[in-house]
Give the backbone structure.
Amino acid sequence: MRFKDKIVLITGSAGGIGFKTALDFGNEGAIVAVTDIDFEMAKKLSNQIISNGGVAEPFQLDVTDLDQTKNVFETLNEKHGVCDIVFCNAGIREITPMLDLEFEDWKKVIDVNVNGVFLSAQTFAKNCVKHNKKGNIVITSSTLGIVAANSRCAYTTSKHATIGLTKQLAMDLAKNNIRVNAVAPGVIRTPLTERYFQDKEVAEKINGIHAMNRVGEPEEVSNAVRFLASDESTFCTGSILTVDGGWTAGKFM
Ligand SMILES: NC(=O)c1ccc[n+]([C@@H]2O[C@H](COP(=O)([O-])OP(=O)(O)OC[C@H]3O[C@@H](n4cnc5c(N)ncnc54)[C@H](O)[C@@H]3O)[C@@H](O)[C@H]2O)c1
C-alpha cells in the first residue's frame, strides 16, 4: 500500500494509460480523483475503483479550462484534503502530413498536450505551496518527445515541449519540495493506437520500431508512473523515464 491515503489526481483517466494507472493507484490505497473530459467514462472508472474496495471520485475536467482545473482542486481540498500527486496524462494526437496540417488542428494538439499539462501542473503546485505541502508531478510525454516520426508535426512538437516543461518545473519547484518527472512511452496498446493493430502489416511495422519487437501495455507505463510518484524515487526530479522497449536506444543497422 505505497499510496495509502495519498490524494492522486489523474487527467485523461478514461483512456488506456490513465485508466490502468488510476486502477493501480486505487489498488495501492490512494484516494483517486478520476478526471476526464468524458465524464461518463470517469464515473464508470471511479465506480470500478470503489467496487475494488478503493476510494475514488469522478470529475469532468477539460485540461485546457483553467476555471474547471481550479474548481477540481478546490473541491478536492474541501472533500478529501490537499492533493499529493498529479499525473498530467491527458493527450490527443493528430497524424497528418505536415504540408496538409490545418492551423486549427495544430493549435488543438498544442492546447491539450502542452497548455493542458502546464495548467494542471501549475494549479497543483500553487495549491501545494499555499498549504505548505510537498508534492509530486508526473507528466506523460512520449518517445516522440525525444525523436520525431513522419506526419506527426503537432504531436511531436507538443511532446518535446512536455520534456522541456518537466525539466523547467523540476528546477523551479525543487525549493518547494515538489518533484517533477515524466514518462516517455513507446507505442502502448490503448484506444489511441487501436487502429494500428487492425492491419497485420502495420502491426508488424509498429512492433519493429521497438528493439524488443513488440508494443507495450498500459500496465508497464502505470508501473513507471507509480515508481516516479512514490518514495522509491526520492532523488529523481527532472527525469525522463523511457518506457519504450528500446525504441529510442538506437537504430538497427
Ligand atoms: N498509447 C500510446 O502509444 C502512447 C504513447 C506515448 C504517449 N502516449 C500519451 O499517453 C497519454 C494517454 O494516452 P492513451 O494512449 O491512454 O490515450 P487515450 O486516447 O486512450 O486516452 C486519452 C484520454 O484523454 C482524454 N482527453 C482528451 N482530451 C482531453 C482534454 N482536453 N481534457 C481532459 N481529457 C482529455 C480522452 O477522453 C481520453 O480518455 C497521452 O498523453 C498520449 O499522448 C500514448
Remarks:
- The mean pLDDT is 97.
- The first helix runs from residue 16 to 27.
- The chain has one domain: 7-243.
- The CA atoms of residues 155 and 198 lie 22 Å apart.
